[in-house]
TrEMBL record:
ANK repeats: 153-186, 333-365
Annotated signal sequence range: none
Organism: Pinctada imbricata
Keyword Secreted: no
Protein name, per record: Uncharacterized protein
Origin: domain of life: Eukaryota
């Protein structure tokens, strides 16, 4: 649209309006059209910022006699409409700033200036935001109530100007026009908050003269203007003149925020100038308690600064020198300022505080830690800082034997650094021992010396990595003095227990005799190390005496049990070579070392399964070469049960060795009635279904070697060995069945399923089933009367079904307890077996049979929309279309009555079957005939698309 076109539209509308004024009829449609057109023209001229065009529009509107100008401007001031919208986003800065248009809008056009938009803002809100002082004055002159009109955020024009603009002069202008400055917005912010945040010193002075009370009022967060300024500071900076004035003018309540922090909490973390010191002095004259007043976390200004280690903690000497600070006040954790200064390694400030009040060094927190002890909880404290701290506190006679509530001494904390920075720990330990050598023997309430405290506190770190990273000198310092003592800790472990556990042996330990001291679980140091998993090489290097190898712990387990558990072949071999056991060692659960390893050991580990299997099998072979006897544990499990459940690839030599030890091991049941082959098959299912084993079912195994001679052995559910073997496609069972009694194939479980039917219902074992068809009783059925042929058609096993029918054609018409033949069952269950059913039609099944619902095979074929099958059935006997089910429905009516139709497939089936229908008016038990079914709305929709 261009200007000339806009003027042409206006001329046309004005002529129409003059006709109305001359006596023509004015319709609502014409009036609405005129308003819409004018709004379009006004929007257009505002978009292009065309002053002359806008003036001409207004002149045309003057001559309208039916109030068109009033209605247009009322509409233009409601919601998101042109004039107010353009005022809001500032596009009228040049246009509405012109005096003649502004005067016309306000005086001659009589625009409703009090109408707000969807945000609740009036034209005065936007006028002050854009700094249009002339228009602002005119709007106020016309309606002074606009000064205190609030938008949806509770903001008056002066609050909105202070919030979103940087025009201090506009705010002062509105204050001179008597705007109410005591009003707060929805967030509780007053004009004083915004003025303070923008450092408008002149506005603050004006507020002080006009309404000083708002300088101390709080917003919704509980912050006064001065506190709001401190919280909004993004960086630390010198206090401004505005802040100093606010601090002087605010009352005491305004100097505390909603978290209990007073202004001194904020001032102490800034670089203090002399003016700031004077301000603090004047504040403390009003309220001296602010200096030592705690916030909601119990932190005084001094504690607050030292806890969070602000850059300007150098203010502390100046702060404590000028003002009477109580250094003994602690936070909710009981820590004083000295605790945090020592923790952060601020040595100079620590010395200054101690000189100020030496008694503060003995203050303890809630964990009974002195500042020195608390400092050493910081594992990143450097060696130089830790040494200086110790020297500083020792200079003032601090007792290095001081302990926390768990009786941990300073050396206990230093020992914890060992796995982080051993050099720092070494220097610190040497410094501490130079003052007091007895610290190395200090024990906490768990009877742990510092080194034991280290290893017991690092349970999340690999045991063989803590001490290997530790400096050898530090290790000797922490260990050597305590090595020969048998004084145990709370669990009965001596230091030697832990040394052996981590497999790190000092030089002198290799020649010293190992102590036989046992802990509360009756474990000697070497057994304790084997239990918690040191290394194979470490156990071999230790002095394995007869006493150690033959003794058992509280669980009845020997060191051989634990070495077997971790599959350490070298340790197992060494123990068995040195010590000849007369009989198997059996723990309290009835497990031998080999059984314990197979029960809880980790043979397989994802991609490393082959490596772990080789390591495990080496250990297992070593144990099997040892003199074994038949052992059954509390769960009725033999070694073979546990082995086949754990390993992925069964080793033939291990099975042979197990049979050599116990010829009946393949037939022994556990408490669940499972023999080894059954356990193997169940675990194999879990492995194949788990994502943990990426190789899935495709791995070579000797599972056939686990098949016992007696195939009639069954589990608690009645499933025989034959059930399991056929289910898992173990081809080796075929020869055993053919050589043995064939009636094993008729043995049923508790669900009445023979081995063949059992496997077929689960969709498995097709290869073995095919090889056993000739000797199987194919008429054998389950509790529901389903034969193997029923299940094969349900699974869609076409070739297998054909072989069964060729062996016994009568099976095709064999009906289960629901009266369903094999093809009817497949269709009834909705299986996609169209191809197999078509091939079954070549064997001439009986099509007149009905099931328990009275449905024939044709009913189900129509329901599933199998057109080729329908054609083949009706080609054999077209009278089947007349057969009715128990609801007196023919196959066509049965198809129409069900909501299982796929319309793309149903259309040709329906068209074909209608050719054979003869009784269109026959009514079913619902009283509906075929025509009524076809006239349903869904069918009408279907035919409309056809």
């Amino acid at each position: 649209m261009n200007v000339s076109l806009a003027l042409g539209i206006l001329d046309k509308e004005i002529r129409r309006c003059r006709r109305f004024d001359s006596g023509g009829s004015k319709s609502s449609h014409d009036t609405k059209l005129s308003i819409d057109t004018l709004k379009t023209a006004i929007t257009f001229c505002l978009n292009i910022n065309h002053y002359d065009l806008f003036v001409r529009i207004l002149e045309y509107m003057r001559i309208l006699s039916f109030g068109i100008e009033s209605s247009v401007f009322v509409n233009l001031n409601v919601g998101n409409v042109p004039i107010l919208m353009y005022t809001r986003i500032g596009l009228l800065a040049n246009l509405l700033g012109r005096k003649q248009i502004t005067e016309y809008l306000i005086s001659e056009a009589k625009i409703n200036t009090g109408v707000a938009d969807f945000l609740g803002n009036t034209m005065l809100h936007y006028s002050v935001v854009h700094g249009w002082e002339s228009m602002t004055g005119d709007l106020i002159q016309k309606d002074e109530t606009l000064l205190n009109c609030m938008n949806k955020n509770g903001e008056t024009p002066i609050l909105m100007a202070a919030k979103v603009t940087y025009e201090e002069d506009m705010v002062l202008f509105l204050m001179k026009r008597d705007a109410d400055i005591s009003i707060k917005d929805n967030n509780g912010y007053s004009l004083a908050h915004y003025a303070a945040l923008k450092s408008w010193i002149n506005v603050i002075k004006a507020i002080e003269l006009k309404c000083p009370a708002i300088l101390s009022e709080r917003n919704m967060d509980g912050n006064s203007p001065v506190i709001a300024v401190f919280k909004k500071m993004s960086t630390y900076m010198t206090t401004t003149k505005t802040l100093r004035r606010l601090l002087r003018m605010s009352n005491i309540s305004a100097l505390i925020d909603g978290d209990g922090n007073n202004v001194l909490h904020f001032l102490i973390r800034q670089p203090l100038l002399q003016d700031d010191i004077d301000i603090i002095g004047s504040i403390l004259e009003k309220e001296s308690t602010l200096l030592n007043q705690s916030n909601n976390k119990g932190e005084t200004p001094l504690t607050y600064a030292t806890k969070y280690s602000y850059p300007f903690t150098s203010n502390i000497p100046l702060f404590t020198k000028e003002f009477p600070v109580d250094l003994h006040i602690s936070d909710k954790q009981g820590n004083t300022a000295l605790h945090y200064l020592a923790f952060n390694g601020m040595i100079d400030l620590v010395e200054y505080i101690i000189q100020k009040d030496v008694s503060v060094i003995r203050n303890t927190n809630e964990n009974a830690q002195t500042p020195l002890l608390f400092a050493f909880t910081n594992k990143h404290l450097t060696a130089s800082k830790s040494t200086k701290l110790i020297q500083c506190f020792r200079h003032h006679d601090i007792d290095l034997n001081t302990c926390d509530k768990d009786e941990n001494g300073i050396l206990h904390y230093v020992a914890l650094w060992a796995s982080y920075q051993d050099i720092a720990s070494l220097e610190t330990v040497e410094t501490l021992l130079s003052y007091n050598k007895d610290l190395i023997y200090a024990r906490n309430k768990f009877r742990q010396v510092p080194f034991v405290y280290l290893v017991c506190s690092r349970t999340s770190v690999r045991s063989d990595s803590i001490l290997t990273r530790m400096n050898s000198q530090l290790f000797n310092l922490l260990v050597s003095e305590n090595l020969y003592t048998e004084d145990p800790d709370e669990t009965g472990n001596t230091l030697l227990h832990y040394i052996c556990r981590f497999g790190v042996l000092a030089d002198e330990m290799k020649v010293m005799p190992h102590t036989s001291r046992r802990n509360i679980f009756r474990m000697d140091p070497i057994s304790y190390a084997a239990c918690y998993g040191t290394t194979d090489e470490s156990i071999v290097a230790m002095n394995l005496t007869d006493e150690i190898c033959l003794s058992v712990d509280h669980f009845g387990r020997s060191i051989l049990h634990y070495c077997s558990l971790h599959f350490w072949p070298n340790a197992v071999r060494t123990i068995l070579e040195k010590h000849k056991y007369e009989e198997n060692l059996v723990d309290k659960a009835g497990d031998t070392p080999l059984m314990l390893a197979l029960k809880y050991g980790k043979i397989k580990d994802g991609a490393l399964s082959t490596l772990f299997d080789e390591k495990a099998c080496e250990c297992i072979s070593t144990l099997l070469r040892h003199k074994e006897r038949v052992v059954v544990n509390q769960d009725g499990e033999t070694m073979l049960h546990l082995y086949v459940a754990k390993t992925q690839v069964i080793r033939e030599e291990i099975i042979e060795k197990a049979i050599q030890i116990d010829p009946d091991c393949l037939s022994k049941k556990n408490i669940h009635g499972l023999i080894p082959i059954m356990v193997r098959m169940k675990e194999k299912n879990k492995m194949n279904a788990s994502e943990q084993y990426p190789f899935g079912r495709y791995y070579i195994s000797n599972d056939d070697k686990l098949i016992p001679k007696d195939l009639f052995i069954s589990d608690n559910d009645g499933n025989t060995v034959c059930h399991y073997c056929i289910l898992h496609d173990l081809v080796g069972v075929v020869d055993i069945v053919k050589r043995g009694p064939t009636n094993i194939l008729n043995e049923k479980n508790r669900n009445g399923e023979s081995p063949l039917v059992y496997a077929a219902w689960r969709g498995k074992g097709m290869n073995v089933i095919e090889r056993l068809l000739e000797i199987a009783d194919l008429q054998c059925s389950d509790l529901n009367g389903n034969t193997l042929l029923h299940v094969c058609l349900v699974n869609g096993w076409v070739e297998l079904a054909e072989k069964i029918v060729k062996l016994d054609k009568g099976l095709l018409n064999y009906r289960n307890r629901l009266g369903q033949t094999p093809p009817m069952l497949a269709l009834y269950l909705g299986c996609q077996t169209e191809e197999s059913l078509l091939r079954m039609m070549d064997f001439s099944p009986k099509l007149q049979y009905k099931d328990y619902l009275g449905n024939t095979l044709l009913h189900y074929c129509a329901l599933r929309c199998y057109l080729p099958l329908v054609k083949k059935i009706l080609a054999q006997d077209e009278n089947l279309i007349l057969l009715l089910n128990d609801e007196k429905q023919s196959a066509t009516m049965y198809m129409m009555d069900n909501a299982l139709l796929n319309w793309e497939r149903a259309k040709p089936v329906l068209q074909f079957m209608l050719k054979f229908e003869r009784r269109f008016y026959h009514k079913d038990s619902k009283g509906q005939n075929l025509i009524q079914y076809c006239s349903k709305s869904v069918i009408q929709t279907f035919f409309s698309f056809s």
